[in-house]
Amino acid sequence: MALACNNEADQAMLESMMYESPMVPVDATAENDGEEHYRVIANPYYRRLIEASVSRDGNSCESNQPTITGQCAEIVGVITQHQVDRPTDNHALLKAAAQVHKIHGADFYTQPKTQFREAIQAAGLIPPDDIEADGKLRRFSSNGKKSDLAGWYVLHEDGIPAGRYGDWRSTTTYSWRADIGRPMSAEEEAAHRARVKEMRRKYEAEKARRHSEAKTKATAIWQKAGPAPDNHPYLVRKRIKSSGAKLYKDSLVIPMRTDGDIHSLQFIRPDGDKRFLTGGRVKDCYFSIGNPRSAVALCIAEGFATAATIHEMTGYPVAVAFNAGNVGAVAKAMRDKYPGLPLILCADDDVQTEGNPGLTAATDAAQSVGGLLALPDFGIDRPAGATDFNDMAALCQAESVRQAIVGLFEANAEKLKTAEVSQVSGVQASNDGLFTDTFKEAGEVSEVSSSAGNSIPAESERPAYRIFDDLFEHGGAKYQAGVWHFSTDKDGNLFQSWICSPVHVEAVTFDGSDNNFGRLLRFKNTLGRWREWAMPMDLLRGAGDDMRGELLSMGVEIDPSAKARNLLASYLQAKAPKRRMRCALQVGWCDDSFVLPDAVIGPKASGVIFQSGERGHDEHTMGGNLQGWQAEISARAVGNPLLILALSAAFAGPMLARCNAEGGGVHFVGDSSTGKTTLLEAGCSVWGGPNYRRSWRATANGMEGAAALFNDCLLALDEISECDPREVGAIVYSLGNGRGKQRAGRSGNARAVSRWRCFILSSGERSIATTMLEGGHRAKAGQAVRLLDIPAARTYGAWDKLHDLPSGTAFSDAIKRASVSHYGHAGRAFLEKLTRDSRDFCALLERIKDLPVLSADGGEGQDRRAAGRFALLALAGEVATEYGITGWPEGEALKAAAEGFRVWRAMRGKGNDERRQILEKVSGFIERHGSGRFSDADATNEAPLRDRAGWWKERNDCREYLFTAEGMREALKGFDFNRALDVLQEAGALPAPGADGKRAKFYRIAGQGIKLYPVQADKLGGDHGA
């Protein structure tokens, strides 16, 4: 679709300009009164398009077009905000405009409206039939009902079309911008931001107006409404009481409040149909059932019927959040309003809804406010449609609801009190119990706390252990905080021993195969802060020195006496807690949750904990904020393919398992001070701070341990020259294969093999092959495709675009500063989305592999494997962009991956690495020894040669080398001999085997018969002429 121009260059320019901005609508009312009445385009993109069509000779369009007449005015007349003077070549401009319309049709002018309507529909809303692009906020029915006006939009079509739209009912808003097929210029970006700001201002103003009107109306309706009878059809069907609801006409009315003020109302009709008051506020609003002031706990639920059921079954007060999207806001409001009251998030288990919004929202809210998470349990025969506690009460015994909530609270009451006293944050629980994520510094406590009862065991109860979290006084005696052992001596005298500072055994941990058991310990360190550690039970082996060392390093104070050491080990094993937790021994995926050393992310995160025998894991740390990372690192990646590849590599780690892809990575090669290390630091900032990056300075055994630490994540290795070149090849194979060495245990039996799967970012001044050659080893093809060499030689070192910085060095310094200021947030935000994304990523990866930009063009299997790795980088980067993490334009990561694949192939060359290496090896052998170890086979008087490798003959201006068997094997040393001969044959350098199946041919040299391998030198790729 293009104008007819004089050459291909003009044609391409026209096509690019056509898509820089879709057209504004045709003005069908233009007057048919001669050229002086024609109006030309105020839109700069359209004007440039028209001017380009006549830029060469004023008549570049098809010459057989008719003279512009009044009929053409309907084609070229355009609605514009400003009228411009007619240029001298107006006739040609109008002629070109007619041609545009002829080729593209009316749809060319209405494309942005179509795109905008499709975007509204993709958001789950029913778009209006007619879209107005006048910059005004307009409303429409988003659910198809004539009386509904919950949908709204604002669309600007001047310049680059952009708009916003949403739904008052769900409080969701979306932004949209037309796809113009290229990045925006600085001026366009500024104009676009200004339009978005104006649209947001209009939206906020309209929202405030609607909220104000709804608030006034809600108050009036609530005052008119009367008490709701308990025989209302909805209440009867749900088997609940009115619980403070009123009746207005035939509908139940539920007030939506914040701090006593009514902002809106929810109406529930007799048939159960629910709707909110038009224009009313939802966010942060709630309805209380019961009195939280005198309660022991406060529940939070989504719907009114669920909340009423919970209140009637438990007696606990309940806050109604009205929908899943508001649960988090209401939970935070309740925490702020009642800081000392335990919160129980009573989730809707929407198993049949994608993403399970009810459970997801309640889980996130429980984690953010330190609450318990209660789930309805319908047993194994769960009927379709059962989701909440009201359904549970109807299908199961009413007592089961009470047990699910009250039992959960009572089982965790003491822990919640401890958390409250110690100001522990991040407390969560499933129906199995409670766990803590992060800890704040303990507040001031009284020096001596009196016993509420006789906590000192009687003689008949000894031996026994007691734990005092603070200084404890009983019977005039004072007991310092900690774990105590109470016993009797051989004469029956009572005595007690202090073992250590407070350590609670919270749960039994074990992996999914009933192995690797441990104990979840909660303890107070020297600074008075509560911490948690999942301790492997094998640390108690022998004298338990390893266990005590870890506890001491984390701040537990332990009596150094031999008796106390023994008692500590006994205490930790004295009684296994009833609570059970799944432990993960590595960072990475555990079913559908992702485990980090300090957090577990995913919809079922509450049942999993990271267990390690080591106290310190300082890789996955956090600093700064996500917004800073996006502005100072991610935004600067646009236009810099290598930086986008580095960041995409960081996101690719968790994608490996979701795509069933093998491990591997990329190796940035380049001169010193070009930005290679900066690329690694940027990639590391996705997951952690300065301690995340590792060095190549390690043995193969040590590298196994490092890889296991970064399972399912990014492994960044800086400066390959620091590694022993003799070990590089083994390390590359090991890292890519994801398996460590097979080792024997003390009894001689095979020990468990370490396993991992990670994406590798590497850097160095030398390639993998060059480094291995220094150690006397040839790089094999399998090593080359596991770690792909990418030259860091762009316009400014590793960079193409400096983003207003004066030099490549300044750009590198800016990325380095940002990497130590904002880190660790992007990876976790990515996991929050990925763990809840159930798409088939394998299929998505295959679609990217099939794109032409990543085609191997009939290359070898190694080319296809490399293309697959770049496709994975493209997928990871695009998914991160889709999740709103990177802020890149759509397709940016794909373009960077395609560029990476291109430069990799340019550096390596097409074809099979091993085949090329064989040909180069034989060619190099001839270059080194062609004169010294070969001689003319037809010479009559030849001098004897030492270490003869063969002879040569002249064949049609090309030299043929006749290798002896020993010479041929020497030339092919390091390769499988028969496979190498096959490669030489495929290249045309060696003839096919004879009838006897042998490749060596019979020759008579100096009167003697001998079998030799004839190699055509010109087929090897080198210069080996006569």
Spell out the key features of this protein.
single chain, 1026 residues, Dna Topoisomerase Vi A Subunit, Chain: A, domain 2, 5 domains, five-stranded antiparallel sheet
Share in β-strands: 15-25%
What is the β-strand count?
40
How many separate structural domains?
5
CATH class of the largest domain: Alpha Beta
User: Unreliable stretches, pLDDT < 50, 5 or more residues?
Assistant: 1-92, 100-110, 418-454
Strand order of the largest sheet: 5-6-7-8-9
Number of helices: 29
Q: How would a crystallographer describe the biggest sheet?
A: 5 strands, antiparallel
SS-based class: alpha/beta
- In CATH, the architecture of the largest domain is 3-Layer(aba) Sandwich
Helix content: 25-40%
Average of per-residue pLDDT values: 78
Q: Could you say which overall geometry the principal axes of the C-alpha atoms support?
A: globular
State the CATH topology of the largest domain. Answer: Rossmann fold
Q: Using the CA coordinates, give the radius of gyration.
A: 37 Å
Separation of the first and last Cα atoms: 57 Å
Entry summary:
The chain is α/β, with parallel strands linked by helices and 1026 residues long. The chain has five domains: 8-105, no CATH class; 282-439, 3-Layer(aba) Sandwich (Dna Topoisomerase Vi A Subunit, Chain: A, domain 2); 449-610, no CATH class; 626-739 and 752-908, Rossmann fold; 913-1019, no CATH class.
